[in-house]
Amino acid sequence: MQFFIDTANIDEIREANALGVLGGVTTNPSLVAKEKGVDFHDRLKEITAEVTEGSVSAEVISLDSEGMIAEGKELAAIAPNITVKLPMTLEGLKATKALTDLGITTNVTLIFNANQALLAARAGATYVSPFLGRLDDIGQNGMTLIRNIAEIFDIHGIDSKIIAASIRHPMHVTEAALNGADIATVPFNVLAQLVKHPLTDQGIEKFLADWNK
Length: 213
Ligand code: E4P
What we know:
The chain is an alpha/beta fold. The chain has helices spanning 10-18, 29-33, 40-50, 65-76, 90-101, 114-122, 132-137, 142-155, 170-178, 188-195, 198-212; strands at residues 2-6, 22-26, 55-59, 82-87, 106-111, 127-130, 161-164, 183-186.
């Protein structure tokens, strides 16, 4: 399973990239809105200058397919590794098909059941993004969804990659890996939590104390 970072903050992206574990970036309109005064396209240029190979998801805001396609073409022109993120709607599916036919990579987002993932994949989505945390929030099991999508894609030989999204804590990451997600897109704070273990810290302290004796 690969790691993407789920942020539009350039400092977080730089820091995560320096760790050598970063396979890509996902953004969404809420994450971009947190970056006060930043122009979306300018930020995408900065991100793609930092992350030159991995996919960088940029989401459209139009609700109709024509608008999504026009926005998608503009976003994709920013850098070759831009992936156009589209909502899981009828219009989003039409736009996914059209952009895929143009050779543009797509990420269908806001997926909450297996049928949505299957439809997105059949429309040509490069990535599908089931939202774990938001399902857990309403008392449904987000991880079961990851497992079901992985199984369906496996049975039917579907190549679309599963991005476990809306990740809230380290256990989501471990479970997503065990249940067949291809990628976990994690907020920076979760990435930092993944590194930590109290026994690692204690071990370092003990080694240094012994060394200094
Ligand atoms: C994924 O691509 C989304 O940007 C993100 O994971 C949503 O997470 P949230 O439910 O914590 O907002």
